[in-house]
Amino acid sequence: MQESILILDFGSQVTQLIGRRLREMNVYCEIHPYNKIPELTPDIKGVILSGSPFSVRDAKAPFVDLSNIKGKLPLLGICYGSQFMAYHFGGDVNGSIAREYGRASLTVVDESCPLFEGVSKVNQVWMSHGDTIAALPTNARVIASTEDVVNAAYRIEGEETYAVQFHPEVSHSVEGTKMIENFAKRICGCKGDWTPSSFVDNIVEELKQQLGDDKVILGLSGGVDSTVAAVLLNKAIGSNLHCIFVDNGLLRKNEFEDVLESYKDLGLNVIGVNAGELFLSKLKDVTDPELKRKAIGATFIEVFEAEAKKIKGAEWLAQGTIYPDVIESAGIEGATCKIKSHHNVGGLPEKMNLKIVEPLRALFKDEVRRVGRALGIKKELIGRHPFPGPSLAIRLLGAVTEDKLRILRDADEVFISSLRNWKCELPHASFPNEMADNLYDSIWQAGAILLPCKSVGVMGDERSYEYTIALRAVISVDGMSADWVHLPYEFLAKVSNDIINKVRGVNRVCYDISSKPPATIEWE
What we know:
The chain starts with a strand and ends in a 13-residue tail after the last strand. The chain is globular. Helix 13 packs antiparallel against helix 15. With 524 residues, it is α/β, with parallel strands linked by helices. The protein folds into three domains: 4-187, Rossmann fold; 196-382, HUPs (Rossmann fold, 3-Layer(aba) Sandwich); 401-511, GMP Synthetase, Chain A, domain 3. Mean pLDDT is 89; it is low at 334-346. The protein has helices at 15-24, 80-88, 176-187, 196-211, 224-237, 255-263, 276-282, 289-308, 323-330, 348-352, 365-374, 379-382, 402-421, 439-442, 489-502, and strands at residues 4-9, 29-33, 44-49, 75-78, 92-94, 100-108, 122-129, 132-135, 140-146, 153-156, 161-164, 215-220, 241-247, 270-274, 314-318, 355-357, 445-459, 462-475, 483-484, 506-511.
């Protein structure tokens, strides 16, 4: 059994950060909605209560029954979690005594408290609460305070129960990670032995037991998630895995051929399906971004289903679902809005009467890459930038045509190859503890966008009236937020010049300096 920490989510926007901090110290954890507590098995070594946008004094505030947890398992309440325990276990929470938002100076009152072992007596934390704890719960004592809030942290005597009104999981809490580590390893006793290699061994064994001799179909995209999922499944069931890679006619230049070639070294059973003409016919004269996505999704299902039917006796459909997808799909009734209903290939399982297997559903994006490395997958595949499912259709604004695709592919190739060839000394975007060899590896995602407008230019002493290409490059951790990359002026000048000189149909190049939010990474 894999020891773990259970995180009960009350709807905080940073709950995933608690999970990431634990995973970064090789402690396995799972995030569950507060109202869907899983069975408390012996492998659960402790419980963390997250923050929440609610006040505990609200009539509809989230409530959880802690009778099987508090006093029986180590427990840490964060922000709302700390106020919840105070409010429901003999203390009081008030909305008018002191409010704190932003950075605060925390003074550790009880330096012998195991939660603060190795933490500076005075350190910076991040506060975000309108309520404050006016009276501590029964048998509790203060272990840390700020200038404005006396009860900034407390523990309950006779129990391994701790609570903090600040957010140790965010980077602004300078020594917050150490506090979380103290809770997980010192208080809960977790060994921190959850590594990519151990995950591979465990999940391969689980897949063998789950799938037996059944046949599994997987839709490959050439991206990191589907590639790692494929290699894990191949390790478990070998030739019973059937991979389908669909060329929708909207991929980057030579991508269909290059990806199929790269998979040869992995020993995968891959079928390549060239369906470009069908996809383009479905997109004829379609300009609305959402209608483009729907047309591409429906056509993919049509093509994939037709190919999958040729594989007799298949019982499973594999998907590259990762942990953020699982969390977002779960939603928390009464606490947060459901962000999205996740389905990698929506409609297929029901349509084809297949069962679902998701070997990566326990992993964050960076962990998928670490597992890929442990599996020996080539760096070029593991370090690939994310690429949108609708492909170049949403980087080509307006109606999709063969000529516009040719322009966009050529411009994109110049941009991406230039990023790969430009040497730099920057942190690697996928592996922050390493240095990147080139600009491409230092960036989370990059690509070219063809704008649906033409402008006047002068080329070869003649007037030109051609398209504009916008370049986009961002840095991110998980794609939920992103900032534009400050590419060197010399690089931008060279790329602009190369695109205009080499790509017929372009006479102007711009660089997108918008962050997400308010913009999105893709333009459509």
